[in-house]
Amino acid sequence: MFEKILIANRGEIACRVIKTARKMGIKTVAIYSDADRQALHVQMADEAVHIGPSPANQSYIVIENVMKAIASSGAQAVHPGYGFLSENSRFAQALAAANVAFIGPPVAAIEQMGDKITSKKIAQKAGVSTVPGYMGLINDAEEAVKISQQIGYPVMIKASAGGGGKGMRIAWTDAEAREGFQSSKNEAASSFGDDRIFIEKFVTQPRHIEIQVLADSHGNCIYLNERECSIQRRNQKVVEEAPSPFLTPETRAAMGKQACALAQAVGYQSAGTVE
Questions:
Q1: In this predicted structure, what is the pLDDT of residue 113?
Q2: Do residues 189 and 136 make contact, with C-beta atoms less than 8 angstroms apart?
C-alpha cells in the first residue's frame, strides 16, 4: 500500500481520486497552475505543489515540472486521472526511471493505445470493428482535403493523441476540411503537445457506447458491460446511462468480446475503456 500519491490532474477528476485515497488512508499531493491556485482539489489534498503558468502546455503536460513536484513531495506513486499525461508513455517511462509507481497500464500498452492512429491499426489486426478512414500522417491542409475527398464527406478530423473531445472537427466541404485540419492541429499541440492528425468517416447520428474492461498480468480480461454516452455537448459527455437501452444482448456480447480482444492484443493491465 502506498503512503502518499500525487494526482497529476486537476478539478473533479483529482477530487474523486483524493476522496478515494482518503478512504484508504493514503495521503495525497495535488498539483496546480496559476489559474488553479484556489481550486477545490488543491484545498482537499494534504499537500499541493505549484507547477507553472495557467496554460496546460506550460504546466500540467510539462513532464519535467510534474516530476519535480513528485520529487519534492516524496510521493511514491502517481495517479494521472484522464487526459493530460495519462496516455503519455514518456511520462510513464520517466516515473519508472525515478522508481515511482504509475497507477495505470504498462508503458507498452500506453504507447499503443494512447495513440489513436496506432491503436486503430492494432484494432483492425485484432478483428475489432473500426470506422473507415486514413491512418497515415497528414502533412498539410491540402493533403487533408485530398484525403477527405477520397474518404467521402462528411469526415471527422481528429487528434491522434489525448482525448476529452479536444482536437476534433467535422468537415462537410473542402473549405471546412482545410480549416478543420489546421484548428485541430493547433488545439492538439496546445492540449497534448502532439499535433498529429488523422481523418475518418463521420458517422451521422451515431451512438457512443463505452465498454469497461478489467485485465490482469496473466492475460485474463473481462468486460463489465457498457455505458451509453451519446448525450454530449461539444464532444464532451453530459449524461452516461447503464445499461444502454440501444443494445441487444447479442450486440452487447459481441462488443464486449471485441473490447477484450483489443485489450489482450496490447497486453493491457488494469481498468480501461473501449469506445
A1: 81
A2: no
